[in-house]
Amino acid sequence: MSCPAVIDVYAATGPVVAEVVTPGPPGPVGSRWLVGSAVPTSGVGAVGDFYLRANGDVYGPKATGGWGSVQFALSGPPGATGAAGPAGAAGAAATVSVGSVVTGAAGSSASVSNAGTSSAAILNFSIPRGDTGNTGPTGTAGAPGAAATIGIGSVTTGAAGSSASVSNAGTSSAAVFNFTIPRGDTGATGATGPQGPAGAAGSNGTAATVAVGTVTTSAPGSSAAVTNTGSSSAAVLAFTIPRGDAGAAGANGTNGTNGTAATVAVGTVTTGAAGSSASVSNGGSSSAAVFNFTIPRGDTGAAGATGATGATGPAGPVAGSSGQLVYNNGGSAAGATVGGGLSFSGGVLGADTICLTAAEYAALSSPVSGKLYLIRREYTSPPESLLPAIYAGYKNGSQVFYNDSGDAGKFWKSRASAADNAWNSVTWAPSLDLFCAVAGSGTGNRVMTSPDGINWTARASAADNNWRSVTWAPSLSLFCAVANSGTGNRVMTSPDGINWTARTSAADNDWRSVAWAPSLSLFCAVGITGTGNRVMTSPDGINWTIRTSAADNLWYSVIWAPSLSLFCAVAITGSGNRVMTSPDGINWTTRTSAANNAWFSVTWAPSLSLFCAVAYSGTGNRVMTSPDGINWTTRTSAADNDWYNVTWAPSLSLFCAVAFTGSGNRVMTSPDGINWTIRTSAADNGWYSVTWASSLNLFCAVSQSGFGNCVMTSSAFL
How many domains does the chain have? Predict the structure, then answer.
């Protein structure tokens, strides 16, 4: 409902000045009009206010210094009586009626307000009592004039602190008033409005990825921090977690009683593989030692002279009945049920014999002393079904016989790491017969070595950096490791895995992988940070040179293919260009990846002439292969786990990959990179790296998590 216009008329003895106000919605606090009979003092009103004195004088707007002088007067001196005007034309039939007539105080302002409309006016008058004037002559009555109209034109908001104004854009008989009203001071903040309706759902975005980058232990009392070294859609979170304050020293314990005399006994004596390292382990305790010896077999002697042809032997064995074991019974083949008391040289196949699968034997925590454990094959399809059905025997923890090497990668055993650090990478040095692993956590012990993958020794790293990758250079007899933390020292080298020296990196980038190219005599490292400089090379591990990467992707792995004379690197980011290759480590070319997955590791299989890469994202396609590093094909992964590393075992013609996630299935193997089979991992740790030791016929993997079991191995020999 609209409000009627209000017309205020201020009259003295001169012309009439009218002001028309149209009520609107409440606005912010603005300038005020004050009314009084005296000249305003500085204590009256606020800056920006206006003052109307009873005699018609107008002051304002008030300034900081006061009201100042009169700006203008609403009334002038009495004018002379005007002449009679001509007769006006008949006006439109309008109605005007008088509403209320109020006598105001002498000296107050006269006013007229229209309580009706412009064509049916109802005028309410407030007329101040005036001074008694002289009686004027009687004028001639004029003819009725046309009905005057008053309308509202524009209403403009002026700047805060400016003067209010009214102008007539019409005529004296058809007034159209334009108002300018200054904006008031900003009002208090209003209450919060109701929540608007929910917007339409947006389209699904590209699936983001999140990976754990570095995990660094900082000084006690420092602040924990998490930074994203990747991007918003492919986050790589680097964690810094402060070490807790050292606890108070405990009270000294009471002296113990004298111990009994220590005893020493010989336990098992095992013959190791030719060329392996001798070892002695204590199977007892510190006070009752039982030493188990492993003594390597000597090198194979020269072939002897051919002996004379022997007599024709008896007929070979025949197939036994279902469930029976075929054996030689005095020159004739016979069959006996396993466990039925069958004698053989060295024992009886009966009550003291237990037949298990390899998986069942591997799961035994404590084999029974004196029992003979025969390992039976559980495969039913060629070619494995054609191998011996009973292919291994164990007694008192030692291997009695073994005639198959087909189980490496299938069965895994947990091993005790030298420390529960976050182990990021492991490699094998054939000439040293030594595994070497590096970690991203630990204090002064971020390296560990082992001659067999079972017995590990902590070594002092050159610095407590987050060491991400280690490799071995045979021609230099040198280990080389790279890190993603440290200042100017993100490389370290060692000739033996024990004594390490910090080296100056070409840049303090986040270096993630290092490889050795024998034919180039060159180390090459790739990283995930830096601008145009995410590659560095070195001929000796000491002097490093920055190289221009093909793209600023997050390069996580690099490998050398000798037969192609080619480096190949893979990344977890990029659009269709998550592979790059180089013949020399200097000039790099982007290649089209088979899919935009997070490719975390790449390896080379010489006998297959094949690159194989694994990823931690993708649906059913977390493997890709390439014969040349240029043309890539996705392959079906055995499970959609976070596959972090892949290696090649030449003597087995087998790829083996390990994962950071999964439930009991964090290993998969493949003979060709195409057909993959899930294997049971020794523990559900965050497996980060795996390597193959050819002289041991052994896979060895390390993890970033676990307690006392951060290593697992798998061998042809259980």
Answer: 3
